[in-house]
Amino acid sequence: MAMVVAENQLGSKATCDSGAAYSPSDSTTNVMAQEAVKKEYGATSTEYNRIVNYKPKLITEAMIKASDHTFVLDSDCMKELQKKFPGQKSKLEYYRMDGKTDVPDPWGGTQNDYDQVLESMVKTWQPAINKKYFKGVKDEL
Which residue in 15, 31, 64, 66 is a FRET match for 93, CA 20 to 30 A apart? Predict the structure, then answer.
């Protein structure tokens, strides 16, 4: 869902991708994540199409090397990626929802959990990323 939020906010100013620090267990995006995106952006939106067609993948060192920024949403994943790719630590940025708390992982939760995480990312993550990296790009939600 973070990839969709970032792409929506940044538009053509950035290319966004997503990956897992640990091996993904599914070959398609979680249905509840798809539903949350559909509720937020609409069933015919580019964002919904992107998440429905997204194939989860494991983050590789090549992905990190090719990126300008790699945003990590929880401390366990950050530790794992730093351990796996010590030469890429400078590109890994640990983003916390309120500056103190990991972005909650709704995996295994309810549809409401997915909806709330997406809503929180839309409200807090987008403006923070914009202010730090993309001044002047869709500053207002």
Answer: 31
Q: Is-contact 48 42, C-beta < 8 A?
A: yes
Compute the average pLDDT of residues 135-140.
48
Helices 31-41 and 2-10 pack at an angle, to 10 degrees, of 30
Cβ atoms within 10 Å, residue 6: 22
Confidence of residue 55 (pLDDT cuts 50, 70, 90): confident
Query: HSE of 77 in the Cβ direction (CA atoms, 13 Å)?
Result: 23
pTM attached to this predicted model:
0.75
Phi, psi (rounded to 5 degrees) for 43: -70, -20
138 CB burial (10 A radius; 0-12, 13-18, 19+): middle
Q: What are phi and psi for residue 71, nearest 5 degrees?
A: -90, 125
β-strand partners of 94: 72
